[in-house]
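Support reply, case 0932

Customer input (verbatim):
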Amino acid sequence: MNIAFFSTQKYELPFFEQSTRDHRDIKITYFEQALSEQTAILANGFDAICVFVNDTVNTTVIEQLASQGINTILLRCAGFNNVDLTAAKAHNLKVLRVPAYSPEAVAEHCIALMLTLSRKTHKAYNRVREDNFDLNGLLGFNLHNKTVGIVGCGKIGLALCNILNGFGAKVLVCDPYAKPGNYTITDIDTLLSQSDVISLHCPLNEQTHHLINDKAFSKMKTGVMLINTSRGALLDSNACISALKTKKLGYLGLDVYEQESELFFKNHSDEINQDDIFSRLVSFKNVLVTGHQGFFTQEALTEIANTTLFNALEVSEGRPLTNEVL
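Our regenerated output:
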């Protein structure tokens, strides 16, 4: 199988090269370009493509890929909302993903965001570097005995529940498929109204798009902390800005952003940011943004590479597909 690998990052290469070392029948060609309607031509002559979260795999791209002989889309991520599954099915393209590369990696990053915001360690770090040891303005709060609401209790949500139980937090979960565990299962309105901290871990679809909007904020406690390491479009960014201005939203931690495909995974330090909404969000002192690095651990990258190769081998050898989306 010859694979066209889009949106290649330097940090991925050692992990994928290690995984493919003993499989000469799998050949990967790495492209730095993201997959789009303009770059799909690069996949001409390949059997499969391998893409990440911000690659464009819409109807037009899929039509181009199918006409060029592509039969498989390998996602090196869990989410697949960027793939037009209807078009893929119409053109008989297989779609496979990495369903659980490291739930703990993302869950631990959630905790990092929570603690950084609550204890203001990022501000303290900058102060101390300037020999400023004043504690005024750094007052935080305990996670112990706080109510933390988790929207979506898949593998990442469950991993986060386990960590929060260690902190002594009261954990609420809203998920139609949640089974009884070390948390209280409740409905979304109860979770929004009772939680001191809310963390999002649900997939992005028509039902969850802008799940957190003006109406949702109106149900929350004043000063609530909101964490999103799932998908950017779960949040209405303009509603977040309004909630920050009124202090309804006391803390916001983001590892994803609705329009992140134009920003994340690239160095824009020498450019003028043209995204006014993002610029407004990061202007608030109680907002912390990381550039989609929740997954970014050695363990997670190893699992992503190994599972992606496993998926490719199953397709090339005609075996049943373990991680097939379509």
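We compared this against your earlier run and they match. Two observations from our side: The chain has a mean pLDDT of 97. The first helix runs from residue 13 to 20. Please reopen the case if you see a mismatch on your end.
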